[in-house]
Amino acid sequence: MSQTQNKFALTLEVTQKAVSHRLKSSEMTDKQAVPVKKYLKTLDWEVLPHPLYSPDIVPSDYHLLRSMTHALSEQQFTSYEETTNWVDSWIALKDKEFFRLGM
């Protein structure tokens, strides 16, 4: 297990096994990738390389943003400051367990 994964486990107060399992389950399996690759070939598209892991699209973002989207559905902001204040307070109201569940 990498040093980064160890830090995640310590920070989130979960086992290293839980971190490793979550990361593995978020990767696309070869069974899923093969049909997609074949289909893209039929389109004659250039497939650009990308990293298997990208910190800007980690699975935990989906947990956070899905919950935030639901909360935002009833909000209307009139200024940037009002928006940032709402986001700051929304995050502050979440307990550690909320973020741990998203991992």
Automatic annotation (TrEMBL):
GO terms for molecular function: nucleic acid binding. Gene3D superfamilies: Ribonuclease H-like superfamily/Ribonuclease H, Winged helix-like DNA-binding domain superfamily/Winged helix DNA-binding domain. Transmembrane segments: none annotated. It comes from the Eukaryota. InterPro entries: RNaseH_sf (IPR036397), Transposase-MT_Hybrid (IPR052709), WH-like_DNA-bd_sf (IPR036388). This is Mariner Mos1 transposase. It comes from Eumeta variegata (Bagworm moth).
